TrEMBL record:
Protein's organism: Streptomyces thermospinosisporus
Top-rank taxon, per record: Bacteria
Record-linked PANTHER family: PROTEIN GLCG, SLR1406 PROTEIN
Protein name per Swiss-Prot or TrEMBL: Heme-binding protein
Amino acid sequence: MSTTTAVAPLTTADAEALVTGARRAAEAAGVSVSVTVLDAGGHLLAFRRDDRAVLISGETSTRKAYTALQLDAPTADLVDAVQPGGPFHTLPTALDRPLLFIAGGLPVRRDGRLIGAIGVGGGAPEQDHAFAEAAVAALG
């Protein structure tokens, strides 16, 4: 008989902390961003739109979060793999949403298990990735 250890799910308080962490990192860099946080089931837990950011950044941050969640990998790790003819080029999407392979989306894990994802949009891809990393690191 096997036992499994329960892992606490991503809570709304966690999601708010992720949004705050990403926002603070972006503000320190002088960048306006939109931030999306999803739980492990792909449900939206938190979203922050910055009206000073490019309007598309909200949709971009959401797609980045879905990509990170669906593939359980940082979107930055996928950039080189997602080329015509590459392994992810024709990957079907379980959530019926287009995948956006640009750095800035990260899976969120607790005790090694996937519990959600964060997506950041509004800066350069490398900046968005760094803002997402800062948010996940601050969550602990």
